[in-house]
Specification:
By secondary structure, this protein is α/β, with parallel strands linked by helices. The chain contains seven helices and 19 strands. 23% of the residues lie in helices and 25% in strands. The protein folds into two domains: 4-143 and 280-321, Metallo-beta-lactamase, Chain A (4-Layer Sandwich); 149-275, Rossmann fold, CATH 3.40.50. The radius of gyration is 20 Å and the shape is globular. The strands form three sheets. It has a seven-stranded mixed beta sheet, covered by helices on one side. The mean pLDDT is 94.
């Protein structure tokens, strides 16, 4: 059986790699932090030393003011305390990575967050065989089966076309989701201007600086109200029903999130057009990934651990819950 429990210590605030004296995605400042991606439930400022992909370091500088870090491009490796670390694409957001750890003949993969769907704004998930697989379980219930992304994008385009005198206001998380909605619209052949809330502009610009073409994006603040009729506008979910939205031309409220599968969540946010788009794996994708990775043991964190543990048991696979906290920051 795996010996990873002897050199890896899961804590509520992060995963400690003992031989390396380093933490994966620590929720508090530490001397050595290995960061999987830029969302605030995985990344933060205040660490003495940081290892992350170049894109994640740029995101951390923008969001948290971190001064520097050691860039680790996908596929590159480095050694700390006899542990060989390498970063591999997680398919979650720009720069998101799985961290492969190799120590004394054992391979452990910490995924951070990941998705299996194609995404025009980030690299695709890489399957990495290992002995211990540390997986998220954000949508770890059989009820969660994400629909085809192109179907949800067509709903958005159709609503826009059917309401030429109004605008469609889409709530989308500032890192990852907003850019993906734009990227999916462009991939579908939609090339009209897309207007942005000010809180999304800097991150969209960062994506473009890293080679992600988002097309014609414009600021709401510098655009006359009447020019936004018949167009799509993106804003943080928190702005959907606040005073800011009153300056828009009769907005139809939409939201892009995996949680839009839950009707009560849509009603709570007064969402008229739920768009089920997730940057996390759904139930089928979680279970299929475990099969493909074929670990000797699966460690499950930040999500619905019980159902996935039960599935592993039914399939004669060993699994345990890490019971980490503070992993619900994303408005997926």
């Amino acid at each position: 059986m795996p010996n990873a429990a002897q050199w890896i210590e899961p804590h509520s605030h992060g995963i400690f790699i003992k031989p390396a004296n380093a933490w994966i995605d620590p929720a508090r400042p530490v001397s050595r932090a290995l960061v999987t991606h830029g969302h605030a439930d995985h990344a933060r400022g205040g660490h003495e030393k940081v290892w992350a992909t170049p894109e994640t370091l740029a995101i951390m500088k923008l969001r948290y003011g971190t001064a520097s870090g050691q860039p680790v491009p996908y596929g590159d490796s480095f050694d700390l305390g006899g542990v060989k670390f390498s970063y591999h694409s997680a398919g979650h957001v720009l720069g998101s990575a799985q961290i492969l750890m190799e120590f004394q003949g054992e391979r452990v993969v910490a995924t951070g967050d990941y998705k299996r769907r194609s995404d025009p704004t980030c690299a695709s998930f890489e399957v990495i065989p290992c002995d211990v697989f540390i997986t998220e379980a954000t949508f770890g219930l059989p009820v969660f089966k994400h629909p085809d992304t192109s179907v949800e994008i067509q709903k958005l385009i159709s609503a826009k076309e059917m309401n030429p005198d109004r605008c469609i206001l889409v709530g989308a998380y500032a890192l990852g989701k907003a850019q993906r909605v734009i990227g999916e619209l462009r991939a579908s052949g939609y090339h009209e201007p897309i207007f942005l809330h000010g809180a999304l502009e800097k991150m969209c610009n960062l994506y473009q600086e890293h080679g992600v073409n988002l097309g014609d994006i414009q600021s709401v603040m510098t655009t006359e109200k009447e020019k936004m009729r018949g167009h799509i506008i993106l804003a943080p979910p928190s702005a959907l029903n606040d005073r800011w939205s009153r300056r828009l031309p009769e907005p139809i409220t939409a939201m892009a999130s995996g949680w839009m599968r839950v009707r009560q969540r849509a009603r709570q946010r007064n969402v008229e057009l739920p768009l089920i788009m997730s940057d996390h794996a759904d139930w089928d994708e979680l279970t299929q990934t475990i099969k493909e990775v074929a670990p000797k043991e699966t460690w499950i964190t930040h999500g619905r651990e019980d159902a996935l543990i039960h599935w592993c048991a039914l399939n004669q696979m060993k699994a345990r819950a890490l019971e980490m906290v503070g992993r619900e920051e994303e408005d997926d």
